[in-house]
């Protein structure tokens, strides 16, 4: 019986020791957790304190900058009124002080500057898109018909080939003219002569379309084809004076009275008979022909500007 009691007491003491050791271990872990928590709280408080100090410093700096800007913008009231009138704004709002009026002017000017920057950005985007369009046109031009020296003698042997040579040359010159106009400085484009030159270029490109269609289809009259071939060939060789002679033959011909002089005594009947003949200018036959002949002359002028003649005697 005593042996059983002693065994029970021994077992109880062992369990008590185990429990005490567990409690001591738990207390140690609790102390560690409390220490870690306290350290984290201290770091968080330190961080918040630094943020508050930084915010105060930034606020003070912004306030100083605002005061400096206010002092810098301390313009006379007469100047403030002048600027507000120039911007189309009221010079004084109800119960507005001089300082408030100046601050309102400053805010309006800042808004205007921001809008100007946005407008410049949009303009740059448009220029970039325009540049991409020009590059695409250049690629298209390279893929188009090749420009070769025009051979007038083909009019009797291979007229279709002559048609294609003239068409390729005029199409190439029109594209060069368009690129030349697009590459001009903005100041030149906005000037009155620059705007007029752009209108003439677009008008010439539109008016010459009937000629381009006839060249593509091969339906020009033989005498007209001969003159147009001479003009294109001499433009290629930079013989602009000779090209102008061919242009005059094409436009007014060799008739003694090319423009409506039909009631001059003994010449009355002869002049009337020649109105529809080949000696009279094709420009007099219809308005469409007159327009594309005029466009050919403008092409000659552009070609002479971009590719000057080799000798002064060939300046038209």
List the helices and strands and how they pair.
Elements: H1 2-72, H2 77-86, H3 98-143, H4 154-157, H5 159-182, H6 186-190, H7 192-207, H8 209-217, H9 222-236, H10 240-251, H11 268-273, H12 287-306
Helix pairs in contact: 2-3, 5-7, 5-8, 5-9, 7-12, 9-10, 10-12
Largest sheet: none
| Percent helix | over 70%
Order of helices and strands: HHHHHHHHHHHH
Question: Between the first and last Cα atoms, what is the distance in angstroms?
Answer: 144 Å
Structural class of the secondary structure composition?
mainly alpha
State which percent range the strand residues make up.
under 5%
- Record field, number of beta strands: 0
Biased composition (Basic and acidic residues): 21-65
Protein name: Pre-mRNA-splicing factor 18
InterPro entries: Prp18, PRP4-like, PRP4-like_sf, PRPF18
Organism: Rhizopus oryzae
Characterization of the model:
The structure is a single chain. This protein is mainly α and 316 residues long. The protein contains 12 helices and no strands.
Any key phrases for this structure?
elongated; mainly alpha; Pre-mRNA-splicing factor 18; 316 residues; Prp18
In brief, what are we looking at here?
The protein has 316 residues and is mainly α. Helix content is 75%, strand content 0%.
């Amino acid at each position: 019986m005593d042996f059983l009691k002693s065994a029970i007491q021994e077992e109880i003491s062992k369990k008590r020791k185990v429990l005490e050791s567990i409690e001591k271990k738990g207390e140690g872990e609790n102390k560690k957790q409390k220490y870690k928590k306290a350290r984290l709280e201290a770091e968080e408080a330190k961080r918040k304190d630094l943020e508050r100090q930084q915010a105060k410093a930034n606020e003070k700096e912004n306030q100083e900058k605002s005061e400096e800007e206010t002092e810098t913008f301390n313009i006379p009231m007469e100047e403030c009124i002048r600027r507000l009138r120039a911007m189309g704004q009221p010079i004084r709002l109800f119960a507005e002080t001089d300082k408030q009026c100046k601050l309102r002017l400053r805010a309006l000017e800042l808004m205007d500057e921001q809008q100007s920057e946005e407008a410049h950005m949009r303009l740059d985007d448009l220029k970039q898109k325009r540049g991409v369009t020009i590059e695409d046109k250049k690629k298209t031009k390279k893929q188009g018909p090749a420009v070769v020296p025009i051979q007038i003698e083909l009019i009797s042997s291979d007229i279709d080939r002559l048609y294609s040579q003239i068409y390729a040359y005029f199409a190439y010159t029109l594209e060069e003219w368009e690129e030349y106009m697009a590459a001009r400085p903005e100041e030149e484009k906005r000037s009155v002569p620059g705007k007029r030159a752009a209108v003439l270029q677009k008008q010439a490109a539109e008016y010459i379309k009937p000629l381009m269609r006839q060249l593509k289809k091969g339906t020009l009259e033989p005498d007209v084809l001969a003159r147009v071939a001479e003009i294109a060939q001499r433009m290629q060789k930079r013989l602009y004076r000779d090209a102008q002679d061919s242009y005059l033959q094409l436009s007014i011909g060799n008739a003694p009275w090319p423009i409506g002089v039909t009631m001059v005594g003994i010449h009355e009947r002869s002049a009337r008979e020649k109105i529809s003949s080949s000696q009279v200018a094709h420009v007099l036959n219809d308005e469409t022909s007159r327009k594309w002949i005029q466009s050919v002359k403008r092409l000659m002028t552009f070609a002479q500007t971009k590719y000057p003649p080799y000798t002064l005697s060939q300046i038209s």
